[in-house]
Amino acid sequence: MNTLKELASIVTRYKVKSIQVIGNSRAKSTDQESNRYQNFYEAITTKQFTTEEEAAALFKLTPNDRAFKRLKNGLKKRLVNTLFFIDVNRSDFNGIQTAYYSAQKELCAINILLDRGANSIAVEMAQNLLKQISKFDFTFIQLELSKILSSYFTRVEKNQKKSIYYAELTRVLKFIYQAEEEATTAYELLITPHLNNSSTYTPTPLSPSDALQKLHIYKDKVSSHKFTLHYYLIAMMEKMMVSDYEGTILVCENALLEFSKKSSLYKESIAGVLFQKVTCLTQLQRLEEAKETILEIIKHQNKGASNWYKTLELYIVILMHQKDYVGANNILEKALTHKGFILLSSYDKEVWKTLEAWMQILCAFKKLELPNKKTKNFRLSKFINDLPSFSKDKRGKNSIILLLQLLFWLTQKQYDKIQDRIEAIEKYSSRYLKQKEQHRINCFIKMMTEMGKASFHKTKVIEKTKKWYKKMQSVPINIANQHEHIEIVPFEQLWEYVLEQLDYDFH
Question: Which sequence spans correspond to the domains of the chain?
Fold first, then answer.
C-alpha cells in the first residue's frame, strides 16, 4: 500500500490537467481547437490532399500562414503524445513487440519516479520488470534496470548482498551489450554497399572474415538473440560472397539450431534465416526442398507484412523455374488482392507489377491462360509509366522494362518497333550492361537485337544468335543476387518461347 500511496502522490503533484492526444472520429471534442487537429489528422489518413497548399486550403489558409504552421506543430505534438497510448495488444503486434514496447514505457516510468524521489515504487517496478523480460533478451533495458538496482542497493539501502549481485549482473550485461553492438555495427557496415546500386557507394574495408574474427571472442560466451542473429548473418555473407551456397545452407542450419535452444518467439529472425536458405536451395535447383522451406517461412510471418510479400516473390520465382505458371499466377493473385498490398512501398509495388507483366507475357506465349478481362486491361505504355523507379535505374531494373517491351512487341508481331530500337538498344547495352551480374541479360538482349537484324526469319535467327547463346550459357543463372528477379523465367527457357513465335518468312 505504501508504494501505491507514493505513486499516487507523484501523479497528483505533477499530473497535467489534460492529455492532448489524437483519438478516433467517434470521439469528437467540444473544444474547437481539438476538433481542428482531429480534422487535420483525418484528412491525412484519408488522403484528402497531396500537397502543402491543398492541406492549408482545407482550413482556408496558405502554407506560409502562422496559423497553419501552428496547426502542423500542434498536430505533431498530439501524435507524439498518442504514441504512448497505442494498443500493443492488437493482433498486428507479435509477442516480442508487445513485450518490448511495454518494457520501454515501464522503464521510462521508473526513471521518472526515481527522479522525483519515489524510490520504493521505482525499485519494486524495476525488479519485477527485470524478471519479466529475462526471456526476451532485451539487453539494453536489462542493463539499464540492473544499473538502477545496483546503484539503489549500494547507495540508498546499503544492502551488500544485493549490491554485489546487481553489480555482477551489470558487468555481465555490459559485456553482452558490447558484443551485440559490435556485431550489429559490423553487419551494417558490410551490408550498406549492397543496399544501393549507386556508383557513389564503395565497398567497406571490413570483410566478413575480419568481422567474424573480431567477434570470435564473444562466440562461446554470448548467446543473446541479437548477437547470435548478426553473427550468423555475417557468416552467411562470407559464404555468399564466394557463391558457396552449400556452405551458406550449413550456416543457416547452425543458426536455426542456436535459435531453437532459446525462445521461439523470434519468428521473424527464423523466417529471415530460412529465406536465405531458400535462396540457396533455389540456386542449387533443389526446388522441392525450397518450396517446403517457403511454406515453413510463411508460418512464421504475418500475412500482408512486407516480409511476407518478399517470401511470396521468391515462391513465384521457384514456381516459374518449375514451369508451374498456374501456381505462380495463383500466388500473384493472392498477393495483389490482399489488403496489405496497398501498404507496400512504391518500389515494392513496382516489383509486383513486373511479375504481373511476366504473366501477361506467358499468356501471350500461350503458356498460361488468363481471364480475358486481365489481358484486355493490360497496356504496355501504362505498365511502363507505373514504374518510375525501374525506369530511372539504367544499370539494372530498367533492363527488365526493355526486355518486357521487346517480348511484348514480338508477341504482337510489331517487328518494326523492335527494328527501330536496335541501334538505341545496342548503345544502352554497351553502356549500362557491362557488369558481371548483367552478363546473361546482356547476352539475351543481344540475341533479341540479332533477331531483328535477321528479319525474324527463324533459321537465320538461330544461326546469328548461336554465339550469344553460348556466351549466355557460359555463366550460370544467379538467382541469389537478383533482387529485382530479372531472370524470373530462365533465359534458356525463355529463348525457346521466343523461337516458337518465329516463322520462316522475312519480316
Answer: 2-174
